[in-house]
């Protein structure tokens, strides 16, 4: 369950993204055990690419640490570039840009995504 403060932070981040973005949104969800990333086209309401630490192929030993977040960032970059998406807007989803969220973003940038 998310808290009211988390929902407020998430709403502020999404509002700013919606006001400025003509590009797809790279959305991050972080749970206690896994981290997930999606590239979403909000105009069409479709997910263009997705990656998570919960996938069977290439699953890291520990799915909740920085190495897992980096691998998810690399996977999402590869998959979105394969779909023809190079520029995205990063949606941290109310999470602080620190730790696993930052590691995922940095790995996605190194993989070729621009944001």
How many strands, what sense, and barrel or not for the largest sheet?
4 strands, mixed
What structural class results from the helix and strand content?
alpha+beta
In angstroms, what separates the terminal alpha carbons? 29 Å
CATH class: Alpha Beta
Describe the strand arrangement of the main beta sheet, using strand numbers.
3-2-1-4
Broad shape? globular
Polypeptide structure, described:
- With 115 residues, the chain is α+β, with helices and mostly antiparallel strands.
- It has one domain (4-110): 2-Layer Sandwich (Nucleotidyltransferase, domain 5), CATH 3.30.420.100.
- 39% of the residues lie in helices and 20% in strands.
- The chain has three helices and four strands; from the N terminus they run αβββαβα.
- A four-stranded mixed beta sheet has the order 3-2-1-4.
- Strand 1 (25-30) and strand 2 (35-41) form a beta hairpin.
- Helix 2 runs parallel beside helix 3 (100-110).
- It is globular.
- It starts with a helix and ends in a 5-residue tail after the last helix.
């Amino acid at each position: 369950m998310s808290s009211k403060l988390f929902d407020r932070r998430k709403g502020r981040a999404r509002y700013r993204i919606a006001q400025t973005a003509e590009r797809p949104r790279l959305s991050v969800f972080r749970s206690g055990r896994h981290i997930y990333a999606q590239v979403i086209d909000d105009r069409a309401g479709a997910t263009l690419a997705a990656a998570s630490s919960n996938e069977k192929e290439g699953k890291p030993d520990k799915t909740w640490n920085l190495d897992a977040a980096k691998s998810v960032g690399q996977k999402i970059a590869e998959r979105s570039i394969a779909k023809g998406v190079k520029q995205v807007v990063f949606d941290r989803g109310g999470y602080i840009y620190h730790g696993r969220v930052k590691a995922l973003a940095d790995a996605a940038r190194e993989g070729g995504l621009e944001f």
